[in-house]
Design goal:
With 264 residues, this protein is of the alpha/beta class. The chain is built from four helices and 28 strands.
């Protein structure tokens, strides 16, 4: 049986793997499911239709699966789905979705989510992200894999942040951030590309050179966006090894709307 502290309140309808540990004074609602090896700290509230995968660690005072902070929400059966091996620190707040946007907030696996982070309704958080203290994601935000967000950073609703991007401390993010870029400030400015992060992930010299070239085409030659995209596409033909990185960038740029645009 799961190890549940006597002071915790776990609804009979909740589904907990036998290896789950629930700390003192925590409340687990009837539609919550928690996978093997996960640990829930003291004074947490897990509610709504929330699914938590395996080997997650949720620290004390977290609020997981609460109703969205959206005036249109009227009690519909929307969801929060969290993957495996995430660390969720103190006072984090993750909300379920709203039906108008598909109704599911998703957090992937292997994420390091620090204290006071807020993940609003219908956000999509990838894998291997690092969200420093007081990161705030408004509704419908999308973070790609390996994104790093500095503390006290706010990301506006519907903004997308591409894989391997890094957002500096106390940034205000209101436009899409392409993959690999290094940005910070208010207003947001592109400072370069995330070369340190790429080296830590064992990107080859050729792949790093291609990312550097994409950064230059987008931000250092005063090109129109369509012209930059055409030039980026040509990089894959020159060096087949970088085709995946080029495809990632092109796919991201293709989904950027004219109304929001990318940070430039």
């Amino acid at each position: 049986m799961a190890v549940i502290h006597p002071s915790a309140i776990v609804d009979r309808g909740a589904e907990l793997d036998d290896s789950v540990v629930v700390g003192p004074y925590t409340v687990v609602g009837p539609h919550v499911r928690i996978g093997a090896g996960s640990t829930i700290g003291a004074h947490c509230v897990l509610e709504g239709r929330t699914t938590i995968g395996q080997d997650n660690r949720v620290f004390q005072f977290a609020s997981i699966g609460a109703e969205p902070q959206d005036k249109k929400y009227a009690g519909e059966p929307t969801e929060l789905v969290i993957g495996d091996r995430n660390t969720i620190r103190e006072f984090c707040t993750f909300n379920i979705g709203v039906p108008q946007a598909g109704g599911v907030t998703r957090v992937g696996s292997d994420n390091w989510i620090m204290a006071y982070t807020h993940i609003a309704h219908d956000c999509l958080v990838g894998n291997h992200t690092t969200l420093a203290n007081n990161t705030t994601l408004a509704g419908h935000v999308e973070l790609g894999d390996w994104v790093t967000v500095g503390g006290l950073t706010g990301i506006s609703q519907f903004v997308r942040v591409g894989a391997h991007a890094m957002l500096g401390f106390a940034s205000a993010v209101s436009q899409d951030v392409p993959p690999f870029m290094l940005v910070d400030g208010n207003p947001l400015v592109v400072r370069g590309f995330n070369v340190v992060g790429l080296r830590r992930r064992d990107f080859s010299a050729a792949r790093i050179a291609a990312v550097k070239a994409m950064h230059k085409l987008l931000y250092r030659q005063n090109r129109a966006l369509d012209d930059a995209r055409t030039a980026i596409e040509a990089l894959a033909a020159q060096t087949p090894e970088v085709a995946g990185d080029v495809a990632l960038m092109l796919a991201f740029l293709a989904q950027t709307t004219a109304q929001r645009g990318i940070v430039r």
